[in-house]
Amino acid sequence: MRAILIAAKRLALAKTRLLPALPSLTERGRLAEAMFRDVLSAAYNARTPARVTVVTCDPVLMRLAQGTGAMVIDEGYPRGLNAAVGLATMKLAAMGMSCICTLLSDIPLVTGDDIDAAFAAMPTEPRAVTLVPSRDFSGTNILVRQPPEVIGTQFGRFSLVRHLNDCRQAGIACRIVRLERPALDLDEPADLQEFERRHSLTHTQAHLARLSLVHS
Fold first, then answer.
1. To pair with 167 at 20 to 30 A between CA atoms, which of 59, 75, 160, 201?
2. CA atoms within a 13 Å half-sphere pointing along the CA-CB vector of 130
3. How far apart are CA 176 and CA 165, in angstroms?
4. Omega before 123 within 30 of 0, i.e. cis
């Protein structure tokens, strides 16, 4: 069985690198919530997975996820992204999930078709990984693993290289798939400019337009 896993930080800790463009902690939290809504919507538009799961310790995001019927895994406290994903991966594997697509919660342009494409790109070997890189080809914005614990996650700076190295060292089939929409994560002020260039009908677009950071 296939599952989507959305990993989301506590809102109060999210998007600190956007501080020059968004000095308000409250507004950065609201932006993170808007992006989460967009990613969650894309997960439900994907045809491949049998389950949508969210791992977080943020009560607002947990309520949002539960309201859509998603399975919520409460990490209890901010463990860090990789530890949270590891906890959720272990639980999903114990439930019989054979393949997990992990999405970061700050890729608001992602669509259900993108998620299906990431699943479809999996190598045919029993142990396999698909990596969808960030726009600068350094990070990993979507990670598909079969079986779920075939490698640990290495989200953070230069995660693409670290995930590739882990696969090569363990002899695991790995494929990189360039997908334009999920490649854009909103981490820095320049990312907001690129996001505006790709005008979209998203919660994120509406929120930034309200702040006059992008045009509606």
1. 75
2. 25
3. 13
4. no
- In whole angstroms, give the CA distance from residue 64 to residue 107: 17
Q: Which residue type sits at 128?
A: A
C-alpha distances in angstroms, 137 versus 54, 57, 123, 156, 189?
25, 29, 20, 13, 18
pLDDT tens over the chain, length 216 residues: 999 999 999 999 988 999 888 888 999 999 999 999 999 999 999 999 999 999 999 999 999 999 999 999 999 999 999 999 999 999 999 999 999 999 999 999 999 999 999 999 999 999 999 999 999 999 999 999 999 999 999 998 899 999 999 999 999 999 999 999 999 999 999 999 899 888 899 999 999 988 876 655
Distance CA 32, CA 110 (A): 15
Secondary structure (H, E, C), 53-95: EEEECCHHHHHHHHHHCCEEEECCCCCCHHHHHHHHHHHHHHC
Residue 137 to residue 106: CA distance in whole angstroms: 16
Report the alpha-carbon distance of residue 5 to residue 101 in Å, rounded.
6
Cβ neighbors of 27 (< 8 A, separation 6 or more) are 211
Domain spans, the chain: 2-187
pTM: 0.94
Q: Hey, how many other C-beta atoms are within 10 angstroms of the C-beta on 64?
A: 19
Strands 173-176 and 128-133: parallel
Using alpha carbons, select from 175, 171, 170, 172 the residue that is nearest to residue 142: 175
